């Protein structure tokens, strides 16, 4: 048995985010695909929630928060580094990680569970995983139950019908801008991956499992597809680059996407959570986005804002955020 044990699922973006990070760090670990056969072992280590990933560590308490896992692993195993050398880029990476985890995940969820044939194919993958990689003999009814149960969760994450067009245009716009950026850079911040790469790639890797978004990505964002393949077993190909080198194609990711979707939504959601409101409403670039208040997302965004605040004297960072329209949402 290795020091680390990672309970996860190939259908979980947060699981493959952590798995790729462990691989990048060169750490030996046991990958345990959660199934009925290992449910007792999972429950014995889980906290109060029954979600993956679940990382069992030799030196830290078990964790089910992918962002916290990456931060702890980085602290315990700093090489190869996943923190950009440029302090401004290090903070921007945290913003992009949160974008992947909290906004791009909505887009992925909407693509997977709101339409056919994606929904049925995903339900069968989930079912097969639960049965240790073997499709059960009488599977149709269970497949339908999974599909219906997950479709019913669409409003909980803000991926309901009223928000469909916003989310659909959002991830496509981001993918095109990211594709432009990756034409000139191996990873988002240069020659090695940051937490932003792990978070965002995990969501697109899931989309590449689903017929509808996979077809679009393969036809419109080939550099994103190649990057996703590389992120399965990532390794450093060179040093990180400074913001002044990256800014030309990094800025449009914010100016044309994060600053018009994720950041105003995250700010509104955090405000609703602080007032203990059940629902949040944000005015985005293409209209109003409403959903149930997400309290975990609010806590995560407070951590991002704290990182920006601690770098208030970093002129390069503050100028970048102001130029791309992000600073007003992060202060």
Describe it:
- The protein has 331 residues and is mainly alpha-helical.
- It folds into three domains: 4-76, Glutaredoxin (3-Layer(aba) Sandwich); 87-110 and 158-330, no CATH class; 114-155, no CATH class.
- It has helices at 13-24, 39-45, 66-76, 87-113, 118-130, 140-152, 164-182, 195-207, 211-220, 222-230, 243-258, 262-274, 295-310, 315-323, 327-330; strands spanning 4-8, 29-33, 54-56, 279-284, 287-292.
- The chain has a three-stranded mixed beta sheet, with helices on one face. The protein has a two-stranded antiparallel sheet with strand order 4-5.
- Helix 7 (164-182) crosses helix 10 and helix 7 runs antiparallel to helix 11 (243-258).
- The protein is globular, with a radius of gyration of 19 Å.
List the helices and strands and how they pair.
Layout: E1 4-8, H1 13-24, E2 29-33, H2 39-45, E3 54-56, H3 66-76, H4 87-113, H5 118-130, H6 140-152, H7 164-182, H8 195-207, H9 211-220, H10 222-230, H11 243-258, H12 262-274, E4 279-284, E5 287-292, H13 295-310, H14 315-323, H15 327-330
Parallel strand pairs: 1-2
Antiparallel strand pairs: 1-3, 4-5
Helix pairs in contact: 1-3, 1-8, 4-7, 4-8, 4-13, 5-6, 7-10, 7-11, 8-10, 11-14, 12-13
Highlighted features:
3-stranded mixed sheet, mainly alpha, Glutaredoxin
């Amino acid at each position: 048995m290795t020091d680390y044990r990672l309970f996860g699922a190939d259908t979980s973006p947060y699981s493959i985010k952590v798995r790729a990070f462990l691989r990048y760090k060169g750490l030996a670990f046991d990958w345990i695909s959660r199934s009925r056969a290992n449910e007792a072992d999972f429950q014995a280590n889980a906290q109060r929630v029954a979600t993956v990933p679940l990382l069992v560590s030799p030196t830290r308490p078990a964790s089910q928060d992918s962002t916290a896992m990456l931060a702890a692993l980085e602290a315990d195993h700093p090489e190869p580094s996943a923190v950009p050398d440029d302090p401004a880029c290090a903070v921007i990476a945290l913003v992009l990680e949160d974008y992947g985890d909290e906004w791009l995940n909505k887009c992925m969820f909407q693509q997977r569970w709101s339409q056919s044939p994606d929904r049925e194919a995903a339900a069968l993958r989930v079912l097969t995983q639960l049965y240790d990689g073997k499709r059960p003999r009488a599977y149709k009814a269970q497949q339908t139950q999974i599909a219906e149960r997950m479709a019913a969760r669409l409003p909980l994450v803000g991926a309901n019908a009223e928000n469909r067009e916003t989310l659909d245009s959002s991830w496509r716009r981001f993918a095109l801008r990211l594709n432009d950026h990756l034409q000139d850079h191996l990873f988002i911040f240069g020659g090695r991956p940051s937490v932003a790469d792990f978070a965002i790639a995990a969501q697109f890797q899931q989309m590449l499992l689903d017929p509808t978004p996979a077809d679009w990505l393969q036809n419109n964002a080939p550099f994103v597809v190649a990057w996703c393949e590389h992120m399965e077993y990532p390794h450093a190909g060179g040093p990180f680059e400074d913001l002044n080198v990256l800014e030309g194609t990094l800025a449009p990711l914010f100016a044309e996407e994060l600053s018009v979707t994720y950041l105003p939504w995250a700010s509104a959601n955090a405000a609703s959570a602080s007032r203990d409101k059940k629902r949040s409403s944000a005015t985005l670039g293409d209209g109003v986005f409403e959903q149930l208040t997400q309290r975990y997302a609010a806590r995560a965004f407070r951590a991002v804002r704290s990182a920006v605040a601690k770098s208030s004297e970093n002129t390069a960072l503050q100028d970048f955020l102001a130029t791309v329209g992000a600073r007003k949402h992060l202060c």
